[in-house]
Amino acid sequence: MLPLRVFCRRFSTKRALDASIKDPKLIESPLTDTFGRHHTYLRISLTERCNLRCLYCMPADGVKLNPNDKILTTEEVIRISRLFVNEGVTKIRLTGGEPTVRKDLTDIVAALRKIDNLQTIAMTTNGIVLTRQLVDLQRAGLDMINISLDTLKKEKFEYITRRKGWERVMMGIDLALQLGYNPVKVNCVVTRGFNDDEVCDFVKLTEEKNVDVRFIEYMPFGGNKWEMQKMVPYQEMVKMIQQRWPDFHSLMNGPNDTSKAWKIPGAIGQVGFITSMSEHFCGSCNRLRITADGNLKVCLFGNTEVSLRDAIRSGCSEEDLTALIGAAVGRKKKQHAGLYLHAESSSHEESAYDSYWWITIS
């Protein structure tokens, strides 16, 4: 497959030069796409399973799961991670499904920590079992944590998740703060008519705790019945907050940030808005994703996947794996084709949780 790699690099080089990339190493990297975007952030789904059944995320009886032998093993996760880090990835985020349901999670974190040049290991979780696992995960090398929480009211939590556990999530947030995670990111999907009346309550948390509350625009998918009217745009949320805190103001954002940062003067924490619906952030995307069954997805809204699992299990060399990755990255589009197109055309069976986990990775 060496000729394929050379072709991909030559094609990428021409377009990358057009994008004014000056570093020759980045131009030649298989992680640089044809629009000059160099991908340094890898998100790895460790499992398709979840211990919640959120209404906007999946049906009450769950989704069809792959058999265990189709899921990446610990060794395969580490091999893929090392390969991407060798090519320039500096941050890896572990997700699911719900990553804490995987029994070897701590071992995976510890093994990732031993990879040279990997700067950050992060995890996105629903926080249900965090109080039992976070101390060990921190010792193993977990650097950052995002906790998903859509309501500060116990009854609402049980309604939307179809499970109990609100108190345990709140305890998990407090434990993360006590252990020194700075900040603790709290992801909240805002849904009109359900929790949009709690936006200011979440913002108030930032006055008292070092949390980064990130409001995520509701994304309509087939799994949640395409209810567009439930989406609360980012600017509407800003106006809502400024009615209570007139000095609520925006902050500077990094070039690859998916979250638009805002803050109340004097607050310990801050607020962010993930505007996946009203203002996409494709132009600065530096993220790639590995699904639990080992497929490389260069964009959530694309329907093309490359099976790294199958390549590894067929004895593919490191060089050919790198070429396979480079070819996939080289096909990445300038921006996603749209939510509806993806939902109708995706050949990989997905639920809406794939979309929410994908966009809450920073």
For the record, give the distance between the C-alpha atoms at the N and C termini, rounded to a whole number: 33 Å
Poorly predicted runs of 5 or more residues: 1-20, 337-362
Helices, by number, come to: 13
Mean pLDDT: 84
Largest sheet: 12 strands, mixed
Give the total of beta strands: 12
SS class? alpha/beta
Main attributes of the structure:
362 residues, twelve-stranded mixed beta sheet, alpha/beta, 12 strands, 13 helices, globular, disordered C terminus, 15% strand, disordered N terminus
Describe it.
The protein is an alpha/beta fold and 362 residues long. It has helices at residues 2-18, 24-28, 74-86, 105-113, 130-140, 154-161, 166-178, 199-208, 234-244, 308-313, 318-330, 339-345, 352-359; strands spanning 41-45, 91-95, 120-125, 144-148, 184-190, 211-217, 249-250, 259-263, 270-274, 287-290, 295-297, 306-307. It has a twelve-stranded mixed sheet, with helices on both faces. The longest helix has 17 residues, at 2-18.
Short description:
The chain contains 13 helices and twelve strands.
Q: Which SSEs are present, and which pair or pack?
A:
Blueprint lengths: L1 H17 L5 H5 L12 E5 L28 H13 L4 E5 L9 H9 L6 E6 L4 H11 L3 E5 L5 H8 L4 H13 L5 E7 L8 H10 L2 E7 L16 H11 L4 E2 L8 E5 L6 E5 L12 E4 L4 E3 L8 E2 H6 L4 H13 L8 H7 L6 H8 L3
Parallel strand pairs: 1-2, 1-10, 2-3, 3-4, 4-5, 5-6, 6-9
Antiparallel strand pairs: 7-8, 8-9, 10-11, 11-12
